[in-house]
What we know:
The strands form five sheets. The chain has a five-stranded parallel beta sheet with strand order 2-7-10-1-11, sandwiched between helices. A two-stranded antiparallel ribbon has the order 3-4. The protein is an alpha/beta fold and 469 residues long. It has helices at residues 8-16, 23-40, 44-49, 65-76, 100-120, 122-137, 149-161, 177-191, 207-212, 216-220, 225-232, 244-259, 262-276, 300-312, 346-350, 363-371, 377-386, 396-412, 419-428, 430-435, 448-460, 462-468, and strands spanning 55-58, 80-84, 141-143, 172-174, 199-205, 237-243, 278-282, 315-318, 321-324, 329-334, 354-357, 391-394, 443-446.
Amino acid sequence: MTESTQTPKEIVEVLDQYIVGQNEAKKAVAVALRNRYRRMQLSKSMQDEISPKNLLMIGPTGVGKTEIARRLAKIVKAPFVKVEATKFTEVGYVGGDVESMVRDLVENAVLLERNDEYKDVRNDAEKQANNQLVKLLVPTQKKKNRQNDMQNLMNMFTQMQNGQMPSENDDQEEVTDDIREKRMSVSDKLRAGLLENEEVEIEMDDPSQQASGQNSMMNQMGIDLNDTLSGLMPKKKIKRTVPVSEAREILIRQASEDLVNKADLYHNAIIRAENTGIIFIDEIDKIAPGKAQNSGEVSREGVQRDILPIVEGSQVNTKYGPVNTDHMLFIGSGAFAESKPSDLIPELQGRFPIRVELDDLSKDDFVKILTEPTNSLTKQYIALIGTDNIKVTFTIEAINRIAEIATEVNHNTDNIGARRLHTILEKLLEDILYEGPDMQMGDITITEKYVDDKVGKLAGNKDLSRYIL
């Protein structure tokens, strides 16, 4: 388990590379993150007493609420899951089980932990994979085992009891001096990278078998049917012919699975989820009653009461073992346009002590979003169109005009924040994106006049902008 040692200022500096403005929200999440590191430095008795200070982000759509939480998890490589509060329903109704958010988080933690463990054993796994590749590239004749049918049958039952794939016979390789010399030659070529594009046939686990074993209803109950059945039935194998470079990665993964201790992996993943996990609950305002509801609706207050024990701290059963939610960080998010935070039940309000209001985006913010962040929207489109050997340049006047149009359309229709820039840029560059691959356009400069011609008139017409932009 790793925990970020970055200071709040350093965390905000990283967030600034991707998200424009919203300094108050960035400071709040940076402090919440640093407090987790501070907690881990204390004595065990003190650690148990300190609970995370959950956040409630309030602001219209498209201002960066989800992006802040998502980037935050990437900074610290923490298990992260985003859920919609509206997908959950009160117990007794058809819908999602609130405990599924914790199970999803643990799955994410297992994935992160597995990747870390695989990196640690990669050198050993690569050696095993290369040895296997040599045998596959220079196969030998099988030496027949002279056991009778009854002995073969008993061996198959023994292998199945041990959870192994039963083999039809225990044929052994017969390695001659000629084969040995060829393998040594191939091994040297492999190390020199001369056989990367050679094709080889390998045997691997059937990926469709893993997918078919995923039963969402069973998983919600913390039962993994796949593991249960795999203990009774051998794994189905398939054969594929792939280049050596791809075969090596498949064999490295197979070898890594054998080298890694799964019990330790799952144990570490649970600890990682419990101490560094982040659950982002979006649309939390939609489960606040707000205006009077119809009698036929599912009780929104009931959904809140179901979520409450998870946020308060409880034990959830997963297929990897029981998981405690006491020290997970929960970030609630919502526009609160038709309701307000005080409409949530008092117990749930109390579990989100830090409230941050995110500001509406202004024209200046849109200009910064288009130009400043790493891989900003304009840089993305320049790179995409560049694949057709077309060099696109935006003038500063054009960018200002795009920002102005986005502000106008958000004001005159629904305010969808920075997402409005996506619709405007897509409409603006529609002709270039469509005709570019068939025409040698060379260099194109997007000017203020070009922006006005393509989207300016649409933005001025309220009826058209409502449907197109």
